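Before the break, one more example. Copy the sequence into your notebook; we will annotate it together after we see the structure.
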Amino acid sequence: MTDRTKLVLMLPWPDMSLMPNRKNGRHWLSSHGAKVKARRDGSVVALAEMGRAKLHHSGRVPIRITFMSPDNRARDIDNLLACIKPQLDGIAKAINVDDKYFRPMVLDEGVDPERRGYLKIELGEA
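Here is what the structure looks like once it is written out:
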């Protein structure tokens, strides 16, 4: 295991049932399974990366989230951030940091050339 100040996590594109605009009026249980899976995905990927390298931080953990969408459809970046809350919770738990310390947070977007969509989450210093 090596010491470094940055972790790069690659996660699947979030389940669109977690988008706040799609949940209006629906029972919370309709998206519960997607939340559980997303939290587990974030945790598993972070733990695997932590097995390769140890993230050193003091208090705040800078985070950069790049949403690589599967198509050119316009999406609100704030809704995308809201729908990945479970992934961020899983990551925070895996690296033993309260997610309120994910600061500063930089959000970016792009299009996946393979049209599958994914999240690239970079934690720590560059």
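Residues 32-52 form the longest helix (21 residues). The mean pLDDT is 88. Try to locate both features in your own notes.
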